[in-house]
Design goal:
DNA mismatch repair protein MutL; 323 residues; 2 domains; disordered N terminus; binds magnesium ion; binds adenosine-5'-diphosphate; 10 helices
Length: 323
């Protein structure tokens, strides 16, 4: 089969949150220690992301906006062994085709920055500018040239909430990166970037949720799991505080959910659900992240192993003295 066909064909850009997800992943891939995200009108009018990563070489900027030009997939096997978050090489191209984009970037080797504008896929201008090493991308007027897609958007406040969720997922799975989020001009939080999940959770999810979280840690064979869970007395009436990650990616997964909830069984009241942030690290070839183009749904080669490692990790954590 041709490699291109193995790449999920789904649209990368469905709403402001998908733009934010792709751009944040690019910043992390670029080794940024600090990232600031700011949105206006739920991200429809403006998404601005600044990082202190490597920057993009001036000669390479146009290429970065060409679909698949930067794809890291050369042979079908590569789909199973990708270690950067981005690999399709189509995010920037897709975003630039449906918005007005302004990129300002500078690498260590450059004397000044380059400001590059591209709107609806058309290069508009390129001129010298100023900024420290790193990249700033401004995405304005999303879907201005595709009214049909614009119609599928929910109201700005809902789109803003999808964006907020996306940023939270990235901030929690990358506590080593300081993530700052400004929503409609108001600072929401800054994570310290100290590498501690607990301090990222405190900044993102608040004091109420983070106060008495229990540390969780387990290794079984090729699976390693770390994270934090709520004590049984802090369980809630919804699953909104369940966050699962596999190899640094946020996922929704019934097996991980079931493993966690089964381990809590008997400790919580009826109709309550545990909260937790569970980070699973495992060999890339035992998980298929390409079930869904947005990479949120996953499929496991050995479903039972996943249940077991989660279940045991949570059981162990709950058995700690003082919980
Ligand atoms: P992918 O991430 O799949 O390679 P993208 O379209 O998201 O594709 O990005 C294209 C390329 O642009 C990346 O491979 C990277 O080289 C460069 N790039 C994008 N964003 C940044 C950034 N914030 N910092 C440095 N380089 C970036
Ligand atoms: Mg990318």
């Amino acid at each position: 089969k041709h490699t291109a066909e193995l790449i999920a064909a789904g649209e990368v850009v469905e709403r402001p949150a998908s733009v934010v997800k792709e751009l944040l992943e690019n910043s992390i891939d670029a080794g940024a220690a600090q990232v600031t995200v700011s949105i206006e009108s739920g991200g429809v009018k403006l998404i601005e992301i600044s990082d202190n990563g490597t920057g993009i070489e001036a000669e390479y900027i146009s290429t970065a906006f060409i679909r698949h030009a930067t794809s890291k997939i050369e042979k079908p096997d590569d789909l199973n062994s990708i270690h950067t978050l981005g690999f399709r090489g189509e995010a920037l191209a897709s975003i630039a085709s449906v918005a007005r984009v302004e990129l300002t970037t500078r690498t260590e080797a450059d004397e000044f920055a380059t400001v590059y504008r591209i709107e609806g896929g058309e290069e508009i201008s390129r001129e010298p500018g100023a900024r420290a090493v790193g990249t700033t991308i401004r995405v304005k007027d999303l879907f201005y040239n595709t009214p049909a897609r614009m119609k599928f958007l929910k109201k700005d406040s809902s789109e803003g909430t999808f964006v907020a969720d996306t940023i939270a997922h990235v901030a929690l799975s990358h506590p080593e990166v300081s993530v700052k989020f400004i929503r409609e001009g108001k600072l929401q939080y800054v994570t310290p970037g100290d590498g501690q999940l607990r301090s990222a959770a405190y900044a993102v999810l608040g004091r109420e949720f983070s106060r008495d979280l229990i540390e969780l840690k387990n290794q079984e064979g090729v699976y390693r799991i770390t994270g934090l869970i709520t004590p049984p007395k802090s369980c809630r009436a919804s699953r909104s505080m369940q966050h699962f990650y596999i190899n640094g990616r946020y996922v929704r997964n019934r097996t991980m959910m079931a493993g966690m909830e089964m381990a809590f069984k008997g400790t919580m009241m009826q109709g309550k659900f545990p909260g937790g942030i569970l980070l699973l690290e495992m060999p890339a070839d035992l998980v298929d992240v390409n079930v869904h183009p947005a990479k949120v749904e996953v499929r496991f080669a050995r479903e039972n192993d996943i249940f077991d490692v989660v279940y045991h990790a949570v059981k162990l954590a709950l058995a700690q003295p003082g919980t």
